[in-house]
Amino acid sequence: MDEKVILVTPSGERVEKRLVCFFKSLDDDRPNIKNIPIMAIDTGALNGSNYVLEFFWEQNGMFQPINDEAAWNEVKKTIIDIINGNTEVAGVL
Amino acid sequence: MAKLMLLKKAEISVPEDKKGKQIAVKESNITSLKNFFVSNYKPPVEMPSVTTTSFVDASPAPVSNMESPLPIEVSPLNMIDPSIIMPNNISEPEINPMNPVINSIVEEPTPVIENIPAIETPIMSAPQPMVLESAIVEPMEPEMPKEITSTPVIENSVPDIFNLPTPIIEEDEEGTNDTAEIKLVQDNDTLSDLTLDEELDPELEEIKNRLDQVILDLNNYKKKIKMLENEVNQNLEKSREVLKDTQAAAKIMSIHQERQNQIMNELNLGTNSLDDSKRVLQKETI
Questions:
Q1: Which of A23, A42, A84 sits opposite B194 (nearest CB)?
Q2: Nearest CA to CA, how far is B149 from chain A (Å)?
Q3: Where are the domains of chain A?
Q4: pLDDT tens string B54-111
Q5: Which residues contact B119 (CB under 8 A, 6 or more apart)?
Q6: What is the domain partition of chain B in residue ranges?
Q7: Over the Cα atoms of chain B, what is R_g?
Q8: Is residue B140 less than 8 Å (CB to CB) from chain A?
Q9: Minimal CA separation from B32 to chain A, in Å
Q10: Across-strand partners of B205?
């Protein structure tokens, strides 16, 4: 069953999205995303036969596109780690 | 090994006109991510009866002993049974303090909820304060006071209020620009085959290329071996045919030889007979 999350814009518009993963990295070797909440959403779109995931991170109290390349690379590495099972879950907030 | 803290929120504040970075992944990888996310939820510690029954009881029957029309005291989100499911057929998803259904949460707990697996809506069991109505839980402000003005956001319930206008987070029209491919080299679940185009470091890329070359060479050798096998088989078949022909020829030659011997014998006999006749004729002549 899909997890859901409601995205709410400043103007109050709300849209429900399928949440794939929501986490923050605690790794020191990923300093650009350490302790920053990151959200992966299933857009429902397809790229070829693959599914398109959309990522946001929290900046200034709002979830925004990850506009920092170093951070974006660390996010992708983290996603690969999760897929490969190379992760340790420290807890749930 | 990456160390992660999983988060759970029901509502996320986002800007109106920005789209997120995107990547494309195999379906099996999405499943892995979802499973990882869901399976690591911890079950809620407490299931207070105040909220355990709420929307499972879809009966719209009003409860007459409502004590107060004012906001109902609601525990934080992590105190709410995540298995609460609001049936889609509830006609009034917008719940206000006057709504008798809310009242029934407190007054009439029902056991139906006990049969529902708690993992179904883990996102709703987040420890963030619960916000009802259209109030938004601002990220990173867990101490925000609770507001009870209308519908509690409950996972899986998907009331009509969520079928609201156009999504603000648009899918990336350019798509491919920011899209990294995560794909399995082979279509199985062995994650060791996972590659992420943007992420492969040169060493891995080199190893992958070498492996590809070795596989290619092996395939070529296999083809050559197969061809040689076919050639050997063909030659063997030809040899067998030649052997058969040789044996047949030998047999024929043997028959001919035997026939020749017979003819020679007959010829000798004829010659002897002729000689005898000559001698007899010479005697008679003398």
A1: A84
A2: 15
A3: 3-84
A4: 344 434 444 434 443 444 443 333 333 333 333 343 333 333 444 433 333 333 333 3
A5: B38, B41, B43, B82
A6: 21-198, 200-286
A7: 47
A8: yes
A9: 6
A10: none
